[in-house]
């Protein structure tokens, strides 16, 4: 499946603000702010990351609302030139840093708006990440509701049948397999968010001492409001994104910069493993 999976979604008019200008802090400011973020991560006993399309652009996957994002181009009557498949896409430095932060006990949950499966490819365990909009490498049984992680991406989007049968055992039986029909987990525009993922995202956001938003313009409900739950409960909010967001006025630290650049500095300050191919 092409990384421009949006072509498979149904028509939806209200895609939020697109093509907004990008801003970039000076290298000196990015350095100072990133060092401060590293300090905040050290001090926080419960940290949640909220990840959006901006953490995957350096992997060759287009964002949606940037100057050349999918929805921005659509508004201009154009299509993105994407020759990359989800199967071929590789995790970015940020994906590996997230996994390393978790391994070091500095990150406790990830609320993810991307479907690209790069958190999994980087080694982050499924229980760490709530894929709010689905995952191209995950299918779910329509009968027993169990999920299966695939080696290759699903052929469909929009919670459709993938053509495979469930291989999990049925109930308490260790002999009979469920054989239910598997569906992709990728949401279309008006599909409801997965109940368990939303529950975990809300719980962790409410209880976090620190929420860090990476590469998201925070325009889609309910994900746009989840980081604010941390602030309302006395926690801190950090936003790293090139475009302005509706939550900027609540941020304790606001970085206009590329996510990978910030994560390189954070990794240096926290003495994380810098080898992105073998975290």
Strand content: 5-15%
Compute the number of strand runs: 10
| N-C termini distance | 27 Å
Strand order of the largest sheet: 3-2-1-8-9-10
Q: What Rg, in angstroms, do the CA atoms define?
A: 19 Å
The best one-word shape is globular
The total count of helices amounts to: 7
Structural class: alpha/beta
Helical amount among residues, as a percent range? 10-25%
Explain what the structure shows:
The chain is of the alpha/beta class and 279 residues long. It has helices at 27-43, 70-75, 93-103, 118-121, 195-207, 226-232, 259-269, and strands at residues 47-51, 109-112, 129-131, 138-141, 147-149, 161-165, 181-184, 210-214, 236-240, 253-255. It has a 6-stranded parallel β-sheet, sandwiched between helices. Helix 1 (27-43) packs across helix 7.
Structure in a nutshell:
This protein has 279 residues and is α/β, with parallel strands linked by helices.
Q: What are the key terms here?
A:
single chain, 279 residues, alpha/beta, four-stranded antiparallel beta sheet, 10 strands, 25% helix
Write the layout of secondary structure elements.
Elements: H1 27-43, E1 47-51, H2 70-75, H3 93-103, E2 109-112, H4 118-121, E3 129-131, E4 138-141, E5 147-149, E6 161-165, E7 181-184, H5 195-207, E8 210-214, H6 226-232, E9 236-240, E10 253-255, H7 259-269
Parallel strand pairs: 1-2, 1-8, 2-3, 8-9, 9-10
Antiparallel strand pairs: 4-5, 4-7, 6-7
């Amino acid at each position: 499946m092409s990384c421009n999976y949006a072509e498979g979604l149904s028509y939806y008019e209200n895609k939020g603000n697109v093509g907004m200008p990008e801003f970039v802090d000076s290298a000196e400011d990015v350095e100072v702010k990133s060092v401060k973020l590293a300090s905040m991560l050290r001090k926080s006993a419960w940290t949640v990351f909220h990840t959006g399309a901006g953490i995957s652009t350096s992997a060759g996957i287009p964002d949606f609302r940037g100057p050349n994002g999918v929805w921005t181009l659509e508004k201009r009557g154009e299509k993105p030139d994407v020759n990359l498949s989800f199967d071929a896409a590789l995790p970015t430095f940020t994906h590996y840093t997230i996994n390393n932060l978790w391994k070091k006990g500095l990150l406790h949950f990830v609320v993810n708006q991307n479907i690209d499966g790069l958190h999994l490819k980087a080694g982050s365990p499924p229980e760490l990440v709530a894929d709010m909009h689905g995952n191209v490498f995950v299918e779910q049984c329509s009968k027993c509701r169990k999920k299966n992680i695939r080696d290759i991406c699903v052929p469909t989007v929009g919670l459709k049948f993938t053509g495979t049968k469930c291989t999990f055992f049925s109930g308490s039986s260790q002999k009979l397999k469920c054989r239910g029909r598997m569906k992709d987990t990728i949401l279309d525009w008006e599909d409801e968010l997965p109940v368990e993922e939303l529950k975990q995202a809300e719980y962790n956001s409410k209880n976090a001492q620190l929420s860090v938003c990476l590469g998201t313009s925070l325009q889609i409900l309910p994900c746009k409001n989840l980081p604010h739950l941390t602030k309302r409960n006395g926690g801190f909010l950090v936003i790293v994104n090139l475009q302005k967001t509706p939550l900027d006025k609540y941020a304790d630290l606001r970085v206009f910069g590329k996510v990978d650049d910030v994560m390189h500095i954070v990794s240096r300050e926290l003495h994380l493993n810098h080898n992105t191919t073998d975290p």
